[in-house]
Amino acid sequence: MVSISQSLCRSPRKLLYNIYLDVHSDAQRPCSTCVRSHSYAVAHAPAGVELPPHPECTFDEAVSESPPVETTETPKSRFERLESRINELESLLREKDRALNTFASDQSQPQMQHHPFASSSNAHTPNLVHSNGFNFDGIPGFANGNGNGIPTNGISNMYPNYTSSKPQNGTNGMDYTQFPNASGLDNLAGVASLLGNAPLSEAHIDSVSAGLNQDTSMSGGFQSNGSNLDIVFASWPVNLPSREVTRHLVEAYFAFHLHAVRLFHGPSFLASLDLHPTDPRFPWSAILHAMCAIGSLYVASIPPTPAPPPEYPAHEVFGARLRTLQRRPDSFAEQQAKFAKEQAEIALDLGHHKFQCVQVTVMLTWFYWCHGRWSEAFLSAAQGLRVAVPCGLNVCPPFHTIAETLRPPAIIPPAKTVMEDEVRRNTFWLAYAMERQMGTGNGWALSLDDQDICQLLPLRGDQFEQGILVYPSERQWSHDRDLLTTHKDEQIDSFILYVKATIILSRVKSFNLRFKGKHYVGDASVVSPNNSPASADQQEIFDIKDAPAFQELDKMINAFRTSFPAHLKSPIIGQSVDPYLYTASLIPHLGLILLNEPHARPGEATCVHADRILRAARAIVDLMYNIASTSYDVSLLGLHSIMCWFMSGRVLIRFLKAAMQANSDAQIPQLQAEIVFIRSMLMKAAERITLAQRYQRMLDEYLFNSTGQTFADSLPISRFSTECTISLEEDSTSTMVPDTSRATDVFMQYRAPPIPARPTRR
């Protein structure tokens, strides 16, 4: 006998009615429902439509055993079933996490022994708080570290068994914040809408590793482990690592990167990272790509970018040649930097995220410079400043053009909050500082003239974090006459001094660049009133130190050095180091070297310029000795400090050469010891910063070229062969031959070029 539920009509047209009215079926052949439907269809059929003469009614075949009766599941029952299933999965995930954490705790100590920070003392954590001005005690994984600011929970097993450092409260990565003030069933309804209309068994809760598979386009040397379970966000930005890994790298970026808490407002940015990826306040993916690229430098679990081989010329400007030579896939950091650059270029073409593009460019400039990719860093720095100009970041009301133009002063809308306005100002000054600092190492024109900048200096760090409004009358402008020698007590900190010191570099660079042109036209600022040459034959007696512009710069640099407030005199207090103040303390000495070095003659005891650059170089060495006496990781100082060290070493090599030529046994040992110490500090910074390795090798090459084999052989110098020729292409049509005939590298020349004679006036 066929049961009522089995004998229901299975016609597709009446399936839903039969399910709902299964107990009312008369079990006849054909059933009354199909008869009525057929009669209605015949009565209302359009002309020309042929219908079957009799209703078609099909039934299930009878089976020996009766299956369960089908019942309709109400929404509440479905939600309860979903909730039970989710609770079951959460229990399994918690058991898996406990097992992984137990294994990771046994393995974390051996892995952390290879971390670059493992040799530092416990006094390093307050250094980070002081230098960045952002307290990371509230960031999971950084507050409970090993005393060095390095999280010990979750790093060792991030790849392949990474667990998020942010507690998820049992949600396993799912963001319920978009369902506020709702009951559990309502939240489950939202989850169901996120997962789609597929049944629970098809929801994508799968074995997904937080690491990156080496076979994918995100190859970074990571192996995927199928034992980790994460919820995959369908709307997560493409090419970014998983949510947990991205957050971990962003936290590392804010914890260790020098410019992070000035380029962004740390608490606000980290809070926006918790939003759903589709939220308009969620960070732009290009910014996250750039942060991941830089943040990967500070974590031990991500393989670093391979350093250039020993045979690669240290002074090579074009980084693409190195990658052609190495023939390797891009590292994780290089991939993320590429994604950031591609998205920024597309956004600029479309006119989207204009200000964010400036922020991305600043981060990419630092990344390229850090890896010694000078051509890309130079172009990126120039682009950052040029994009900042139409965004109106180089000027501040009321200092706009007086001419009537078709375009507004800025192509981005005005800032809505104090915080947003100050972030824009900080971004401009960081772009300016990076472009000026790199510009000191070449003879090329700058991208933006100082006279085209009418902007307020940044806010003090604590005021910036709190979003305090400070009126322009209480602050300093970039074009104030006494900007470099006067500091307002309520508006001065290490970052403001850092910006002011960069302005000094800009003025010295402009003087060196424009000196010959101004002298040619007879500009009084560069003409010495005592012994200016009347003809080309008298140029050897010309002494630039009597030129008014030179004297003004020299006095300004010395006045800036002595004008630091009492609480900012020393960048090192105990074991604590302020990176911005340390760089601001180095820059005046570098400015004196850049100003006097082209005119210095180290072999002459009466040369004033030689005495000035020697004193400046040894002042930089003294600051190096001070930081070497601490446990501070020198790779966190920033890139310009490393450049100052290199320039100091280069000056000392000049004096070593002069001492060796004069057989001065009293000076040679001291100069040797200072050069060896500078080289050791560069090698220490090169453990993470590729730029330091390039500077160290450039110093070795210059030492060898200046002193010859006698002194160079006494040092543990790994020098590339000056006779090598490196083929960059398979057909050997393009070769790269080191030019050892030069006295220097890609930086400035030592010897001042001859001054052109002024035109005779008739």
UniProtKB/TrEMBL annotation:
It is found in: Nucleus. Keywords: Metal-binding, Nucleus, Transcription, Transcription regulation. Coiled coil: none annotated. InterPro entries: TF_fung (IPR050815), XnlR_reg_dom (IPR007219). It comes from the Eukaryota. Residues 377-464 form the Xylanolytic transcriptional activator regulatory domain. The keyword DNA-binding does not apply. Pfam families: Fungal_trans (PF04082). This is Xylanolytic transcriptional activator regulatory domain-containing protein. It comes from Somion occarium.
